[in-house]
Amino acid sequence: MSAYIQGMGNISPQKTWDEIGLLDQPLVYTGDKLCCHEPDYSKYIDPKHLRRMSRIIKMGVAAGAMALKEAGVSVPNGIITGTAYGCLEDTGIFLNKMIDNKEYALNPTPFIQSTHNTIGSQIALLLQCQGYNQTYTQGAFSFESALLDAILELADSPAQSLLVGGVDEITATSHALQKRFGVFRNTENNLDLFKPALDGTVNGEGAAYFVLSGEKGPNEQVSIDAVRMLYKPQDAVVKKEIESFIESAGLKSSDIDFVLLGKSGDQKLDTKTDEIAKMYFGSSSIGLFKHLSGEYPTASGFALWLAAKIIQENHIPDAVVLRNTKRPMKRVLIYNPYFGTHHSLILLSSC
Amino acid sequence: MEDRVHVAGVGVISAIGVSVDETLQSFKNQSSGIAHITLFDSTYRDKLPVGEVKLSNDVLCKKLSLTPHITRTALLGIHAAREAVANAGIDLKKWRTGLISATTVGGMDKTENFFNDFKIDSAKGHLREVVNHECGRSTELIADDLGINGFISTINTACSSSVNAIALGARLIKHNHLDIVVAGGTDALSKFTLNGFNSLMILDSQPCRPFDAGRGGLNLGEGAGFVVLISDRVKKAAEKETVAYVNGYGNTNDAHHQTASSPEGRGSFAAMKKALAMGSLQANDIDYINLHGTGTLNNDLSEGTAITRIYGQNYPRLSSTKAFTGHTLGASGGIEAVFSILAIEKQCIFPNLRFETPIPEINVTPQRTYEDGIEVNHVMSNSFGFGGNCSSIIFSRTTDNG
After folding, report:
1. Which sequence spans correspond to the domains of chain A?
2. pTM confidence score
3. Within a domain: residue B295?
4. Under an 8 A CB cutoff, do B386 and A120 touch?
5. B15 with B108, same domain?
6. pLDDT by residue (tens digit) across B270-301?
7. Residue A145 CA from chain centroid, whole number
8. Using CA atoms, how far apart are residues A20 and A223, in angstroms rounded to an integer?
9. How far apart are CA A19 and CA A243, in angstroms?
10. Domain A222-350 adopts which CATH fold?
């Protein structure tokens, strides 16, 4: 059962909305984090709603609006969101106020907007969408869970358009905190993240939404055919699961024309990813994306947008390509080995 | 019997008991778990009653043979999930097994302590206090404890989360992605949620009175509830006698307001209707409704209105069990799913404590005493949350174990 992409919206550290050429002028960052290149939200959200929204809600609602617009869908049949961290900014505001004010005289708004389902429910409220509404928060499986849910839902009733997305934000607090775990490093230029790979990666954030249907219309060029998540697998299990994932789609690894790898710039992790690419995808084109998006739990949303664009345009941007074997883009695999603990596989086809 | 998703085991921990047996006893004794806060510091310690699980983190860790520093949300989840798996008595490792949990606070109980130091100096605070903050981490700790790595997921649709977790589990089994799913939810009390709900002015300073005309808000609670769902194939192979199966579920959004339910209860009405339609049931087939029934002015009127829109005054037996447990947020759907299944197993109805006077607009009188010897074939459980998330689920009695 496939889900067909009717529209996409992506707010990321790159020019991924209103773009002219696909990532042909990638934005360059210095430091240990890549924050979103954000649009003028008033183009997408009524200003009277906008002023109450935190940044992650704006990002999510606007990315959703972009996807719906591209799909030509005014109200979807359901909204499914993945977010690992949820609304961190409002969580931090309420937590700090609670401590400062010794639990007295607290404004409820940040508390209300701190729950993970705020993004999906704000979209529902603004669109008056009373259909299926779901929010997943399983770390680096959050977006993949949302996709899987959509595929199940569309298998049961294909004639629907579901809005499905992944959203996570960097806040000053979350970045300061995550830095202490020693997972990030400074770069002079994010585009050089892999040359050479060192210890650590760069932080990232983004909001990517997709309108998916179980029925192929005349404009749909890309289908999502399968998604699989591997939780804390042994190295040998990863290999076995990649094989079985491709096989269960009726394919061989050599059928994959393009692989988008979630290498993060961290040498230890990337070595394993390279080994897998070499073992299975020696004849495929290979691309990378985390130097453009940064590393974050729902970065696979950025990857899905990128893979779908590459299929639509049948062209791999220079900023993405690691090896180009010039094969036509029929079958594309996204493999994202998030910090070596949460591996995900998404299979796409041109249709 | 085709394509049914059966309940093979249940586990629960809440203010009224740390096991299924203790919980049933509390219901029979009409003994509420609502009392003063004893396990964490708060300005509201003696002012706002809550439904605490009466075991400290240290005691829970010792009881479960776990190392300290695990968040309370995960500890409660592990406690209930282990009971559910033991109750099911099926070897999870033989099958494609997943864990789908739900939580709204995740590791907030530790994070809020960490923040005291961290906000003064961002180099301060023990990282072990915050490493399990993410909602998904509580699920991973439960999965690691049970040895489940086939599939894991976490849902946070506020107070409707756990029902959605159980529904996803059922769907993954129906679509033959998994054979067994341990599904439910867990949430610990935290200062963060206590203050959040207090800032919304919807906490009752007295033990809550769901569906009563004089109700004054909700009491927060904590706990976890899990069910073990199995496919037909597993049921046959394990020769497992089961009590109930998942017969229908509905998920909708009220799309009315970020925190308030619509006056006509359009989201809850639609969720109940969807669940009934999926189970091919008439509204009158339902023998018992476990209400969301938080005790707030808004929820109970909205939910009650939705129920009278479906039933008029011929509604089935119904009760909110939150007067016993408090509102356990993301865990409530899991805990109340366990209660719903127990109602089928024991052929009993749980009382709606402290009810005196019906809400005039709806005139609904819930069940007031514990009663058994009642034919309970179909139970509907409601869970509604902030953000307009509304979910209902129906469990039905297994009549054919052949």
Report:
1. 3-213, 222-350
2. 0.98
3. yes
4. no
5. yes
6. 999 999 999 999 999 999 999 999 999 999 99
7. 12
8. 23
9. 36
10. Peroxisomal Thiolase; Chain A, domain 1 (3.40.47)
ipTM of the shown complex: 0.97
What average pLDDT does the segment A238-247 reach? Answer: 97
- Angle at the Cα of A325 from the Cα atoms of A322 and A329, rounded to 5 degrees: 95
Residues of B in contact with A231 (CB under 8 A): 140, 143, 149, 151-152
Number of domains in chain B: 2
The residue whose two tokens read 């990128």 is A306
Which one-letter DSSP state was computed for residue A201?
B
- For residue B3, the model assigns a pLDDT of 85
Asked if residue B2 has pLDDT above 70, the reply is no
Does residue B129 belong to any structural domain of this protein? yes
Range of the domain at B164: 5-237
Closest CA to B208 of B300, B121, B98: B300
In a domain, B402, yes or no: no
Statement: A3-213 belongs to CATH 3.90.79.10 = no
Q: What is the pLDDT of residues A140-194, one digit of tens each?
A: 999 999 999 999 999 999 999 999 999 999 999 999 999 999 999 999 999 999 9
Q: How many CB atoms lie within 10 A of CB B347?
A: 16
Residues B216 and B201 grouped into a single domain: yes
Spell A259-282 as b/e; 16+ CB within 10 A means b. Answer: bbbbbbbbeebbeebeebbeebbe
Is B159 known to be catalytic? yes
Identify whether B292 is a catalytic site residue: yes
Residue type, A115: T
The rounded distance, in Å, linking the Cα atoms of A336 and A141 is: 10
Over 80: is that where the pLDDT of B1 sits? no
Question: Residues A39-61: pLDDT tens digits?
Answer: 999 999 999 999 989 999 999 99
Residue in B147, B160, B57 with CA at minimum distance from that of residue B382:
B160
Count CB-CB contacts under 10 A for residue A47: 8
Are B203 and B341 found together in one domain? no
CATH number at residue B377: 3.40.47.10
B139 with A138: Cβ contact below 8 A: yes
Chain mean pLDDT for chain B: 97
The answer to whether B133 is a known catalytic residue is no
Q: What is the tens place of the pLDDT at every residue in A276-331?
A: 999 999 999 999 999 999 999 999 999 999 999 999 999 999 999 999 999 999 99
Q: B43, B199, B269: best mutation site toward chain A, by most A Cβ within 10 Å?
A: B199
Specify the DSSP class assigned to residue A203: B
